[in-house]
Amino acid sequence: MGTCKASLLWKGMTLLNYQVQQWQLADVTPVVVLGPHNADLQRTVTCRCLINPNPSAGKTSSILTGLRSLSDWSVLAIAAVDQPRPAAIYQRLLQEHLHHSALITAPTHHGRIGHPLLFAAALLPDLLAISEETQGLRQIVQADPTRIRRVHFESAIVLADLNTPDAFEAWRSR
């Protein structure tokens, strides 16, 4: 995108702060993993921040940095900073995940899987084995589609991915 997505303004605050706020409103304690180029953003958030020492290794290195820092968890939600969602989305996904004892819970909109994905602790070995070579989380999700609890949302926000300036502006103006 050519700019630091975490610092982009979204609903009156940075994308990073918006994401942290929404997770906290959903009664989730977020752990944020930043690249070294964003280390100064640690001061701006009200949660635990980690620095990924090797961001050039891809997205999976950030996921693994965060995952390895956790202990005693039952549900893992993985969200990218460029996929902002309101707290109500997170709350509903968590409720569905826990109510159905799902291994994986995913939001959908008109049949398309969106984000964030929620994983049960039983999948820890699979999560620790992710790599860029095996397509990261996609391998876990596609390995057995029957493990996925799909939660339909009327709002297309569950599909939002702000990878380009045009996508960012289109979603921000909604």
Helix proportion of residues, in percent? 25-40%
Count the E strands: 9
**Looking at CATH, which topology would you report?**
Spore Coat Polysaccharide Biosynthesis Protein SpsA, Chain A
Query: What structural class results from the helix and strand content?
Result: alpha/beta
What name goes with the CATH superfamily? Spore Coat Polysaccharide Biosynthesis Protein SpsA, Chain A
Q: How much strand content do the residues show?
A: 15-25%
Q: State mean pLDDT (0 to 100 scale).
A: 94
Largest sheet: 5 strands, mixed
pLDDT under 50 segments (min length 5)?
Answer: none
| Overall outline | globular
Radius of gyration: 15 Å
Distance separating the two termini:
20 Å
CATH-level-2 architecture: Alpha-Beta Complex
Total number of domains? 1
